[in-house]
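Thread title: Can someone regenerate the structure for this chain?

I was given the following input by a collaborator and told the matching structure tokens would be attached. They weren't. Posting the sequence so someone can regenerate them.
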Amino acid sequence: MGHRTLRVAIVSALFMTYGAPGLQTRGTPIAAAGAQAPATPAAVRAQIDAISKEIHPAIIEIRRDIHRNPELGFRETRTAALVAERLRALKFDTVRTGVGKTGVVGVLKGGRPGPVVAIRADMDALPVPELIDVPYKSLVPNVKHACGHDGHTSMALGVAEIFSRIRADLPGTVVFLFQPAEEGDPDGGPSGARRVLEDWPLKDPTPSAIFGLHVQPEMQVGQIGVISGPAMASSDRFTVKIIGKQAHGAQPHTGIDPVPLAAEIVSAFQTIPARQIDARSPTVITVGTITGGSRYNIVADSVTLSGTVRSLDPAGPASIKARMEAIIKGVTQSRDASYTFEYANNAPIVLNDPALVAASMPALRSVTGASVISPLPQMVAEDFAYYQQRIPGFYFFLGVANPAKKITAMWHTEYFDLDEDALLIGMRAMAAMTADYLFRQ
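Best answer:
Regenerated them for you:
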């Protein structure tokens, strides 16, 4: 075995055991809790496994088709049409389009009475160029499925087919929600989940729980990541304008220079997570842009900062906002400058219902070819959280990395891809967990 081959084998083994470098876990894999068995009958579980394996090649082709034809948020017309056509072909009871502008809601009633449960998948792509050379490379310049939503949509369509085939045995109703614009409105409006809830506020039918998943490039294919409680951070956006007084660059004393004030504020912001908030409560304040000035020898009349705040504490955003404004006010007043401060809540915390997570574990642990691990919460955000504010929800992670195939790039990059073997694991996991929910009710 050559040095390079040996290195790939070692890295692959480390990925399988621990996940990617940088992905911290609470201990992997999670030990089984007793001998608790899934509520779904063994015969139904066997059908789910068999159908998943049978349709896996077709789901890969659907994923590749969506990947070749990516669409930005609220522009997912082709993807939505593909989804709606597929659900109608599977003889769903109801298929509603135009939900939240370009979303699709499909309702499949089982052959036996029971509860209503929802599955959500997002459909939008990102304004990112595709730089990987694959047969399914994006055909749209500077637009790419760089966050795996093509995989989310195709897996949900796979689960839809599985359930359509076993609907006579299903005790209840499954609502499939294909959501637009999880990445946000390119035109600056509300995100997809908020727009969906305006059109379909989880009523008619009314699910009692909702499930979702996200591909995770820091986890090896075959791994399922489960977090109980806070799983993904809230996401807020801020803009600060520091207003000074323009002057000649050689005579700064005749003006009020906002540039050093901006520097002070940026530095002081970092004392909030470092010195003002309990270190056990993860908090991120990032200043992403600084703009101002018109010429090298002119004191600027204003400087504008913009950035994001992330927190895993439900009370965090309000507290952080107040602390930020106190810093801005103190710095500007000390130099006779003024300011404006805008702070917008973009998405709440993804809060996985502990009881729902615990009840779902036997089903997830029964998934063929998968191991369940427990990663630490993520500081990235997800508007799935808006559904969880209304009903119990469970959002889990699906490993898609495979260093042996050189599939390791992170979300939102030009090189992101996923190991398509993960689509089979994802279908099985989502179908097993959803069916188990229906049967145990």
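The radius of gyration is 24 Å.
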